[in-house]
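User: I'm putting together a small comparison set for a docking exercise, and I want a reference complex before I start. The sequence is below, and the ligand is beta-D-glucopyranose. Could you produce the 3D structure with the ligand included, as structure tokens?
Assistant: Of course. I'll restate your input first, then give the structure tokens for the complex.
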Amino acid sequence: MSKKMKLLSLLFVILAVSFLAACGGSETGGSGSVSVGIVLPTRDEPRWVQDEQRFKDAIADTEYTTEILFSQGSSASEKENVETLLNRGIDVLIIAPHDGAAAGSAVEAAKDEGVTVIAYDRLITDTDAIDYYVTFDSVAVGAAQGQYLIDNSEGSGVPLYLYAGASSDNNAFLFFEGAWSVLQPKIADGTFVIANSSEATALQEQAELSREELSRILGQITTNWDPNEAKNKAETHLTAANAEQKGDVAILAPNDGTARSIADVFASDSEITHYLVTGQDAEKASVQYVIDDKQSMTVFKDVRTLVEDAMGMALDVLDGNTPETTGSYDNGSIDVPAKQTDVIVVDGDNVKQELIDSEYYEANEFSGL
Ligand code: BGC
């Protein structure tokens, strides 16, 4: 081959590779080939990096091609991500929205192009442009957190500090609703005394709360899923607390990231003699906190199952089959067919069995197991 020919073939290879890269490397044709776009809310929380890794593991040995994009806590970036994926010709979109209501316009754009939309973990609200929802049982997550505080508290009049997720995330409502369903009778009978939310105290005789009532409480105790905001709120609450609101306390923290920062604040207050604090996600840092007795529990949501369900649904759709669902969720506009997964409570007693023996994590990732 002449030098010129060699250069030309090299150029051709470079062009072909860049073209494939621009297409997300997606091959088309053949009954098994798929093109699935995945949009996750942020890389800044270990929870979603965990999902990314599990998606990568799940597709590693298949012929399927996917592309995963992060929205970094911005609905505008999320919309751009969806548009990017639409330009790459995806057939199925799996999306965990940053803001469940704001994501409506992004998924409507996808539906307009005939793409099947699967909401992942977080529901997209007030739109009919969503086909399926794969989720954990989020009400059960909150109920497990509340029940843990009940089962592990002693005596009565225990100060109860309440924290919640972001109001833009439908899950934050479900988690709190689940927690309230078990905690409210124990607040009403005096086992717990709410220490940091006048809105929750005003509603403490009420077993069921409307969305609007939940919004009022969440407005007061939200962490926005931000560990820093959680830390600042916890500091403010402890500064305002009187002696009766200290001592042995119980803390409802919505997830691991916020639980660790709230726990650190309570641990550094000499008038707090003991605290119980909940969490969820089984993030590695919180698993270590549980082993070290700095966080009381976490709710383990096996992301492998959620990824398997979401990818399974996507493949069904691409093969022209109807995905199996187990129920539905009202998103304010339609009943979205849903597949739901159970959750597992993890504390110091079963952490090894649930997270190491199940091969979710490796023992050498932790100390003092
Ligand atoms: C997820 C949680 C997560 C939280 C903050 C929720 O929608 O279900 O697992 O901790 O968002 O990202």
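Residues 1-34 have pLDDT under 50 and may be disordered. The chain has two domains: 32-130+303-341, 138-301+345-365.
User: Thanks, that's exactly what I needed.
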